[in-house]
Amino acid sequence: MTQSENSSRMDSDQVFHDAIHGSMELPPLCVEIINTIQFQRLRNIKQLGLCYYVFPSASHNRFEHCLGTCYLAGKMVRHLKQQNPDLEISDRDILCVEIAGLCHDLGHAPFSHVFEGFINEYRKENGGEEWEHEDASCKMLEHLFKENPRIKVERNDIDFIKDLITGKPEIYRRPKFLYQIINNKSYNIDVDKWDYLARDSHFLGIGKSFDHERMIKMSRVIGNEICYRDKTVDNILDMFYSRYRLHKTAYQHKTVLLFNKLLGDALKSADEHLKIFEKVDDMKKFTYFTDSILEEILKNEDNRNLRVARNKLKDIINRSYRKCFPLTKRLRFL
C-alpha cells in the first residue's frame, strides 16, 4: 500500500477531537480518504434518521461514527498484536483494518437504516434484488478510489478492505480474527457496535453501563478467533442490554416509527418524479444523495407531482400526524 504525494508530506497521524473517544489519532492515508467528497457526504446523513425529530440532541451523523469506528479498529488490532506478537498482523494489515473501519458505512443512504427498509420493500414489489448498505459501501469505496486517483491503494488491499467491511473473507483471505473486528458475523461483538452504542447513548442522553475499553483490554486471539476473558461476561451482558434499551427508548419509539411510516410514504410518492430509489445504483448520483432529499421535496412547492410527498413531510414537521394516525396504536416499521 502506498500513499499519495500529499500524504507523504504528512509525517505523523492527524488528531481529531471526539465527544466519545477524546483525542483520536488517525493515519495520513485515512485522512486523505476523509478529505474526499465521497466520504464527506456522511456529514449530511444523520446516524439515527428521524430520531432527531423526537430527540433533538440526536443530531450526530455517520461521519463522526465512522471516524470513531476507525479509531477503535486500529486500537483493537494493535492490542491483539501486542498480546501475541506471533500473530500474522503486519503494519499493512493494521492500516487496512483502519480503512475498513473508516469506510464501513460509506454506503448508507439518507436516514441510515430506515431507508434500507424502504428500498427493500420497493425492490420486493418490483422483483429486484435485496439491497444492503455494506455492499453499497464496497461500491462507494471503489468509486472513491476511482474519482481520487491521487490516493494510491493496491488492488489486493482494496479487496481485503471490502471483505473486512462485509465480514466475509470471500476475495482476499487473511486470518479469521481480522474479520471479527469491524463486522463480526460470528457472534456480533465488534468495534462498530461499540462506537454506535456509546455514541447514540451519549447524544440521546441515555446512560450506558458497558465499557468498550475494558473489552479491548480483555481480548486476545485464541484458535484464530477473538476471545474475551471470563471477567467480561457482565460487561458483555451490559453491552447487549444497552442495545435493547436504545431500541426500546429511541429506535422503536412510537413517534419515531410513525415518522418513519410517513417518510416512507413521502419517498414512494416522490420516486416517480425524482427517481429516488435508482440513485443507490449510480455512485455519482449516490454521492449527493443525503438527508437533503427532504429539502429537495419541500422547496419544489410549484411541482404538483410532489404535492402528496410534501404534505407527508409537512405532517412530520408540523406535528399534524394526529389527523392521519391514531397515536394509541403502536406502528411497527417494516
UniProtKB/TrEMBL annotation:
InterPro entries: dGTPase-like, HD/PDEase_dom, HD_domain
Top-rank taxon: Eukaryota
GO molecular function: dGTPase activity
PANTHER family: DEOXYNUCLEOSIDE TRIPHOSPHATE TRIPHOSPHOHYDROLASE, DEOXYNUCLEOSIDE TRIPHOSPHATE TRIPHOSPHOHYDROLASE SAMHD1
Pfam families the UniProt entry points to: HD
Cross-referenced SUPFAM superfamilies: HD-domain/PDEase-like
One Gene Ontology cellular component: nucleus
Family affiliation: Belongs to the SAMHD1 family.
BP GO annotations: dGTP catabolic process
CDD domains for the chain: HDc (cd00077)
Domain HD, residue spans: 62-197
Protein name as it appears in the record: HD domain-containing protein
